[in-house]
Every structure is written in structure tokens, then in C-alpha cells.
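This part of the workshop introduces the protein records we will be handling. To make this concrete, we reproduce a full record directly below.
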Amino acid sequence: MIGWLKGHKSALKIVDPELRPLEARLQAAHEGGILESSDTNPYQAVWLKNANTFSGMKPVTGSLLLVLEGPTPAQARRLPSSLILLPVSRTELKERSLMSVACDTLIRQFVTHGRNIASVCDFAGTWREQSLSCSAAGETAVAGAEGLSLQRLLAGDDVRQEGALFWTELKNRAALEQIATDDLLNWILSCRTAWFSPYTGDLLHPGDALEIHSLMQEQWQDNAMPGHCYGAQYWNHPSINATFSGKGGAVTFHETQQDAVSAARSDGGRIYSWAGRTDPAFEQICIQNGIQLSRIEDGFLRSVGLGAGLARGAMLAVDDLGIYYDPSRPSRLEVLLKEYVLSPEERNRGEALIDLIIRARVSKYNFGKTRSFAYPANKDKILVPGQVADDAAIRKSRSATIDCANTPNVNLDLLRLARARHPEAFLVFKPHPDVETGLRKGKVPRETALEYADEIAEDANIIDLIEAVDCVETFSSLSGFEALLRGKKVCVHGAPFYAGWGLCEDLTQIEGRGTSRTLPELVYLALVKYARTIDPVSLLPCSPEFLVARLAEQRTDKRHLLVTAIKRHSSWLGRKLGI
């Protein structure tokens, strides 16, 4: 049940066999309270197109529930599906046509309730301003005649054609009552329409449905060129295909750079190349052939489970200039942070995202056992998060304190420096989960780590640790970003994307940065403007806000956790066997 729907809970009976596939959704809409009636007899639900067949059935009192397809198909797969629900009194049908009663009922309800409802969404204005349509958003389900007529009406087109009798009649009645068609449509789609999430099937607020439609269409149109991917691990292929499929078709995956270049030249497509496998020679070949190249990499809220453990990512960084972890050249994120001017609404969204992430307690990998930590109250408590020693984010970074290109183990260097800088502090070392599980390089022997750290937090959840300390000292770990979100002091030895904007204690001067940014600005630009997100369950594009909720849900899903654990152990075994 969702709070914006109010009503009673009289029984709902499906009498039209063609509505049986939608029974669960109709019941959900009814129980949510979208229907209003003063009588206690059951609603008898029928499609409007079939209503004359059932209008004379017993009992002759009570309400007939007319169901119309909304502006999106009832069986939509990519867009929010919609059903318009209109109760009409059976007693009124004795002397008047069903179409007349249906139109008059809507007009009467609008005049009584609709004129002063502030929460009505501007469906008609948004539909035209953004040229919304089902086909332009990649929806493959086909709407019926009523749905197509409503789509034309929203678009401002003529609806006087076969199958448009109801909407033509309603428009004419509204004109007689001097009611603006757009005002009536907005009220119907906000207050008499049940919208269902393409991600979960649950009821949606009308405004959320409109935002999802806009997001789906924008992404579908943005992917107008054929996409070719090189360098990504196979377990990430479904996520990459979901992110970059669109008007130009599905993504094609290639084993070699040459194959990707040949295919992109042939169909005029673009290449998405995993950043760590994109060398200067490959970039130059793309330039010489006039091929658009974007580097891709795991984003900042990735998954419940490790990438090296075969968990596919749900957020991708997409960069046409460089990549966010490589300060040797400008990235698209760095340019955004230097130049983009946020609106008040965008800043507010950044603030809301911070609050949402904190309350959901999500992180990049959402890995490790949740527990409480109690450290000495009389000492500064500093978390030193480990990283993958041979990761490109280390080797390509810059640092005034660590030789990141040549050091045999950045984690040991970081521990030594942290102890030297804070001789009296209580240091907590957290190994990187990929290293801790034996999937990547960078292990510091336990006895060596304890020469500098007071405690090693093994198999720990990073959020629990951040909340238990005063400061995070890192080379370039995303844990620093996660600590900033939670109001902690962060000291940085390297040049991660969040350093150089006045938010951290930067131990390395980063050329080209220096613009002061607030944390909400950083969050909005990184998570909304720079990265792309998909729902890891339905594999549909989604907002970062929905992804936060989905990750929080998966973190407590026993089946998901079991599958993730099996994949992680399979990955470890495969690496040991050289597979």
C-alpha cells in the first residue's frame, strides 16, 4: 500500500475473462485505495471495450469497474504499465449509454475533486515537452486502440479515428463544461490511474512513473549508435548490454581490439572499452578511424558482492575523455567538477542522495559481516583501508608520499606512513575484500601489518568501520568517498576523484583541480551526471536512488547472498587452477 492512495476496501470481482492476467495488479490497485465508492457491493471489473457485454448482468446495483489501458501498455516490460480505473453506477446505465455515463462520471468527479488537487502531475505538458512515446523509450509491448488514442491525445494530436470513441467523447464533454483537456488528462493520470513499476511490479506514485518513462526514453535515445564492447569480463556483459542497448540495438562483445574496430567501422558504431585495457595505441586507432571511444569502469555503488567474485556491476562510469581514477589526464568527471553549474534542484537531489545512502548503509561492494566495533575512547581512531596493489587506480595515480608506479605493495607503504603521521592514534587496517578473499594482489602478512596497526578488521563491513572511527587515511580508496558521505575527516595520499575540491586533507597537490565543491555537488555529479545505473534484478536502467534501495534489499536477501558466495568461491578456485 502506498500513502498517496486513499479509499475503502470493498470487494473486487473480475468478471471479464480478458482481465484475468491483470487480476493481481487490479487487486493491488484496489487495496491501495485508488477506487472510491459509497456502496458496499463488489466492484465488477471489465475492460471498457467489453463493457456492454457485462453491463446487464446481475446484480443491477453497485458499481461496474471500467478498466482502460493508460498511455503505456498494460503488459509493458520496460516502461511503467498503466491502467485507468473508472467505477460507474449500474443504476445510471438503465436509461443512458455506457459511454455517456463513463464520461459524465469522470467530468463530475473532476469538477468535485480535481480542480484543487495540488499533487496532480503535468503529464500532458511533460509528454509534449519531452516528446514522450512508448516506441521512443524502447517499449516492445503493443498498446490497444484506447491506449494509442490516449497517447495521441497527450501528444496534442487528433484522436478522431477508429477505437478513439471514449477519448473523443470525453474531450467533447470537457469542452462543453469549459474544462481544459490537459487539466482533465493530468487529473485522470494522477488520480484515476494505477501505475506499476517495471522493476518490481509494485504500485508507483504517478510522478515516479513519469520520471521512469523520461529516464528510459533518454537512455534509449542516447544509445542511438550501435555499441561494441571490448575488454570487459564476461560476468559484466549482461549489465553492460543493459546499460548501452538502445535505438542502435544490442551491444556486441569482441575478444580483440581489432575486431571491435572493424565492427564499429562497418556499422558506424561506437566502442565501449574497459578502462584498464584501453591503451594509447587503441585510442589512437579509434581516432584515426573516426570511431567514438568511451572508457567504462565499475561505478561507485556497484553490487552486493565482489567484482572479482563474479558479481556483475549495477553502476558504470562512462567517460569519453579519460577515467575517474586516472589523474594523468582529465576525465569527464573532473571536467564536470570544474565547470558544471548545478541548479538548486540538482543540489537538493545531491543532498537527498547522501541522506538516502547513509540511511540505507550501502557501499560499493556491500561485503563483510555487519557488527559493532568499540575502540578506545581516549585515542584518535583512524581507519586505513587497503587496496588492490596492482590495480590501475594505484599504478596510474599520483602521490607526493608513495611511489605508486613502482611500490611492491601500496598497502604496506600506507600503513607505515599512517603510523608515522599518527604515532599515538589507534590504527585499524582493513584489507581490501578482493585481496582478503585471495582474488587479487596486495596482501600484507598479518604479523607485518600489526607492526603498524593496532587491529586488523577482517571480513568486516566498511560502513561499520567508518562509523566507528574519527578519520580515514587512504591512498585513493573509494572508502574515502564513503567516509565523506558520513561526515568523517579524510586524509588522502593519492589523487582520487574526490580529492582536490576542498573536501579532504590532500597530501598531494593535484594539478587542474582547486575549485571548491560541496559534498552534495560532488555526489550529484558523480552518481547522477557521470555514472549510469541499472537495476541488477530486472536489468533495466534506473535512477541511483532506486539502486540504493535495491542494494539494501539484496544485502538481506538470503538467496542472493548464497548465489554470491558460490560465485566468489568458484572464482577463487578458478584462479587457483589457472582457469
Residues 344-577 form one domain. The CA atoms of residues 555 and 561 lie 7 Å apart. The chain has 22 helices and 18 strands. The mean pLDDT is 88.
